[in-house]
Structures are given as structure tokens and as C-alpha cells.
Specification:
Elements lengths: L2 H16 L5 H12 L7 E6 L5 E5 L12 H14 L5 E7 L5 H6 L1 H22 L8 E9 L5 E10 L1 E4 L4 E4 L8 H19 L13 E5 L4 H8 L12 E5 L2 E7 L5 E7 H9 L10 E5 L6 H11 L24 E8 L8
Antiparallel strand pairs: 1-2, 1-13, 3-5, 3-8, 4-5, 4-12, 6-7, 9-10, 10-11
Helix pairs in contact: 1-2, 1-8, 3-7, 5-6
């Protein structure tokens, strides 16, 4: 079932139920997903190089929250990050904030999301610099998520971190014992303190009572590749694949999610509430939810060269982007060539 059909059908209900809460970024996402690959959108004209059969294909909207788009971009990100992996053990560190802070996140999304990403990195960086076995500069890939598996609003950050750091003065690569990086309870305490200091500097306040115990998870993920693939799935494809939208009947949408244990959950809610469930996770315009810190920062070329020397490995300066798969002719199976990139005012009919 296409999400564009549901947007067209239930946008009025969404406005009636949640209109005052809709942000400009939400309306922009709605507009993009409504026209995604639909009649009336721009078309691309292709012709088979063998039998000269031609087709007109509607363009995708290209919005990063659309589940129908940017699968290729997601794969490219995974390939780029995979090429940067060092031949060391990696850890996936997840920082979460108490539920009492979620209203502040919602009201100040750009500021709090940015603060969350920076605070998570500052916590890891401070531990690496003080750790007796490391005392050096570490690195991280950080990814912001705004939802849990049930699609509830739940801001948190995942960091993929190598179990080692560079001591620049001594030109040493220092590693931790296998299977252990930093104590979770200590990470949580330092993260909490840095977060409140960041809130104070931003002038943000919380009226609710905040729990003293926060949660940070730190687990080994081997060479890091599987963790990258896991995170890459959620970067450019929206929060719910269209295959998980099961039915649309009598104004109610049924869809499939999973709980934290991986058990399948079937939910049915009104069409307007369904759209709102998805829109809550649309990020502010041009906000970067993926960031590289420390060793992997864009300005760290000198450190990367030192890593290459110390670990006797050559990391590519840049990776060649993979090409999108060819469109095959429905008649003979030949490769189709692009004749026109954008054609307006035409219906997407096969010729």
C-alpha cells in the first residue's frame, strides 16, 4: 500500500486532529510524500537499447522521511562508513534520555537534538582521554533516532566506537581488553551531568522531576559492519516501510511493528493519527542526524594518516559511489537508457 494514497486520503483528518502541532517541516514532508511517484509528478522517459520499447516513470519525491525513496542513498552511506572501519573491535553505545525530557525535545527539536549528539560525543571523548589504558583521541559515528520499535517518540543516539584511541604525542595506538570499553553506569552519570550543563547554557528548563538514574548501553559489535547496516536502514527510508502498512478500511489504518524483544505487533488507528505517528519523526529541515567525531571527523586527515601508519592499514581517502542498478526492459530484459530526465504534463503510461 502506497503511503502517498494515505496522505491524500487522510491529510484533512490530520489537520483536524493535529493541525496546531504541525511544523513547517511536517507540511513539507506531507507535500513531498503525497506526490511521490504519483500521476502529475515529473516523469523520466527511458527507452530499451535492444527493442526500443519506452516507458515513462514518475519521479520519487526524494524526501529523507519517505519510505519509498532513497534506498540507494542508504546503501551508499553504509558503503562509505564500511570503508572507514578500522581492523579493531567496535562497540555500539546507546544514550537515552528519560521520558520526562521528551516534551522539551519536542518543543525545541533543533536545539535539543544537536545538544544530544554533542553531549553523547563529549561523554565518550572525556572517558577516552581519562582512561588509564587509552589516554588518547577516540572516534565515533553518531546517529540520532527519534523513535523506538513501536514508533513512539523516543529520542536517543547510537554511536559506533572503536575500542582504541591514538596518543598523538607518543604516536601510539592503544586498545582496551577484548569485550570491554567503558562502564555503563559511569557513562550514564557523566552524560547526565553534561546534559544538564548543556540545558543550562541553552536556557532550557524542565518542570517535571527528572530521575537520577539514566540508561546507557555499551556492547561489543565485533568489527562494526553489522551495526552500520542496522543503523543505515533508518537513515533515509522513513520509520515504517510501506510493506508494513497492512490495510486501510473505514478510515482506520492497520500496520505492523515490533517490540524490543522482536515480537510482531499489529496496531490499528485512525488515518489522521497514523500520519501523525509518522510525522513526529520528521527532523527539522537540513538537520544532520548523522555525524562523525574525533578520528572520523572531516578535519582529521592527519590523524587518519597516523592511524594508517600505526595499524599498518590503508584507509581510502574517499570511496567511489556505487551506481544505481540499471532499469531493465519489461519486454525483452535489456538495459534501458534515459531519454529525458524531467517531463511535465504527461501521464505515466507505458508506450
Amino acid at each position: 500500500m502506497l503511503l502517498s494514497h494515505l496522505v491524500e486520503r487522510y491529510q484533512g483528518d490530520l489537520e483536524r486532529l493535529h493541525g496546531p502541532q504541525l511544523l513547517p517541516s511536517h507540511r513539507q514532508a506531507l507535500q513531498a510524500m503525497r506526490r511521490c511517484r504519483r500521476q502529475g509528478s515529473d516523469l523520466m522517459v527511458l527507452q530499451c537499447s535492444n527493442c526500443e520499447h519506452s516507458v515513462k516513470i514518475p519521479h520519487s519525491c526524494g524526501h529523507r522521511s519517505c519510505p519509498h525513496c532513497q534506498h540507494h542513498e542508504s546503501q551508499q552511506w553504509i558503503e562509505r562508513q564500511r570503508a572507514k572501519l578500522l581492523p579493531v573491535e567496535y562497540f555500539l553505545i546507546t544514550f537515552t534520555v528519560p521520558a520526562e525530557l521528551r516534551p522539551v525535545f519536542w518543543q525545541h527539536q533543533r536545539a535539543t537534538y544537536d545538544l544530544l549528539l554533542r553531549t553523547c560525543w563529549q561523554t565518550i571523548d572525556s572517558f577516552a582521554r581519562r582512561d588509564p589504558k587509552l589516554r588518547g583521541k577516540i572516534g565515533a559515528h553518531a546517529v540520532l533516532h527519534t523513535h523506538n520499535r513501536r514508533l513512539d517518540y523516543h529520542p536517543h543516539v547510537h554511536l559506533i566506537v572503536p575500542a582504541g584511541a591514538i596518543h598523538e604525542q607518543r604516536r601510539e595506538w592503544r586498545s582496551k581488553a577484548k569485550g570491554y570499553l567503558f562502564p555503563e553506569a559511569s557513562l550514564a552519570r557523566v552524560f547526565r551531568a553534561k546534559w544538564f550543563e548543556g540545558m543550562r547554557q541553552l536556557g532550557l528548563q524542565v518542570k517535571s522531576t527528572i530521575p537520577r538514574e539514566w540508561v546507557v548501553h555499551c556492547k561489543s559489535v565485533g568489527r562494526g559492519e553489522k551495526a552500520l547496516i542496522y543503523l543505515g536502514r533508518y537513515l533515509y527510508r522513513g520509520v515504517l516501510p510501506e510493506k508494513n502498512i497492512l490495510s486501510d478500511e473505514d478510515g482506520m489504518v492497520t500496520f505492523r511493528t515490533k517490540d524490543n524483544a522482536g515480537k510482531e505487533i499489529i496496531q490499528t488507528i485512525s488515518g489522521g493519527d497514523f500520519l501523525w505517528l509518522l510525522l513526529r519523526h520528521v527532523l527539522p529541515r537540513r538537520f544532520r542526524r548523522v555525524r562523525d567525531f574525533g578520528l572520523r571527523h572531516a578535519n582529521g586527515k592527519r590523524l587518519i594518516q597516523l592511524v594508517q601508519l600505526l595499524l599498518r592499514v590503508v584507509l581510502p581517502d574517499r570511496t567511489e559511489p556505487s551506481h544505481k542498478p540499471a532499469v531493465l526492459c519489461p519486454q525483452c530484459g535489456g538495459v534501458m537508457e534515459v531519454l529525458a530526465v524531467r517531463v511535465r504534463g504527461m501521464r505515466p503510461l507505458l508506450s
